[in-house]
Amino acid sequence: MTTLHFMILMLVAIGGTGVVLTRNPATQAIVASLYGLLLAILFVALQAPDVALSALVVSVIVMPLLTLLALAKVRDYQLEQRSQKQ
Amino acid sequence: MKVGTRRLLFIPAALGLGALLLWGVAGLRGFGHYDGAYGLLLNHTAVAERHATNVVMAVTFDYRGFDTLGEEFMLFAAIFGVALLLREERTEIEQTPDDELPGRAVSHTSDAIRAVGVMFVGITALFGMYLTIHGHLTPGGGFQGGVVVASALLLIYLASDYKSFRRIVSKTWIQPLEAIGMAGFVMVGLLGPLQDAAFLENVLPLGRSGNLFSAGIIPLANIAVGMAVTFGLVLLVNDFMEQTLLIRAPRQLGHR
Predict the structure, then answer these.
(1) H-run or E-run covering B213
(2) How many Cα atoms sit within 13 Å of B142 on the Cβ side?
(3) Tell me: the pLDDT tens digits for B211-220?
(4) What is the DSSP letter of B95?
(5) Beta carbons of A57 and B31 less than 8 Å apart
């Protein structure tokens, strides 16, 4: 295992820990997007460019977008419920 | 079981799992010293047999094309399920949000974001189409190119507001195109039985490896899969956006 692989694997490990330790869901979606970018770099270093291309778009763009939209909908629903009770 | 007891039980379980994991990883070969049979066999035969220089594409669309058909229908089922769950129900009506009522100015996206979006939409769409069409030559292919073109369409939403995104990316032309992509893959597979061969067998002329028009049905299958993935993904995100950005108010009695 070369130095480059070791460094990228360390970055992926730190990124994964960072995603788990972020408690706020909206912030966690953005940190997960950054983690997806680190994973794509790892896949390119391990000579799997097809996987890197799919992982890049799906994990960096689509997953955080769907998560943030779902969170916004839940927050709007809670606000509406609270205003209806009053 | 209380939380403290669970935490105490976690430690020996984690140690056992960690020991097994370390033993397994230590028994792996080093990176680059592959000792399986199929990889080396494919490297020797795939380019000569199928005239496709991207061996991964030759495996997923030719040797194992049937598995890719199953994956496409898995994607279709997921999009269909989301569209079913997030449909407009009988007890809800769709309203535009308060800040888009007529007579009220829509909040303006910043000019820098609009400029960058306009610059990048065309380039990203072109790059995605390049990845799709050249899938049998260089890394990429139907799925990869398809998701890149989908992100170009989503960039339209980022660069402008939701109303213009809805006008450009309306369901009337996205849904038929996605269906054409899904059905197109099956049609490409049916070229085989038309010429007394198996379903999804490579029956078109193979050409010279390295040319754009080579490798038989693989470019056609790539284009079909790319179309299906692009428009399917845009439909998926559009369902979520409709659910969030258009207010669904409960229908009052006597109201329409």
Answers:
(1) none
(2) 29
(3) 778 778 888 9
(4) E
(5) no
Q: Which residues does B contribute to its contact with A (CB < 8 Å)?
A: 30-31, 56, 131, 139-141, 143-144, 147-148, 150-151, 154, 233, 236-237, 240-241, 243-244, 247
Tokens of B49: 């047999």
Chain B closest CA to A58's CA: distance in Å?
A: 7
- Per residue in B121-177, pLDDT tens? 999 999 999 999 998 888 888 899 999 999 999 888 888 878 888 888 888 889 999
Q: Residue B32 carries which side chain, given as an amino acid letter?
A: G
- Distance from C-alpha of B28 to C-alpha of B200, rounded to nearest angstrom: 36
Distance, in Å, from the CA atom of B110 to the CA atom of B118, rounded to the nearest integer, reads 13
Per CB-CB distance under 8 Å, the chain A contacts of B244 are 69-70, 72-73, 76
| Interface predicted TM-score (ipTM) | 0.85
Give the Cα separation of B71 and B20 in Å (integer).
32
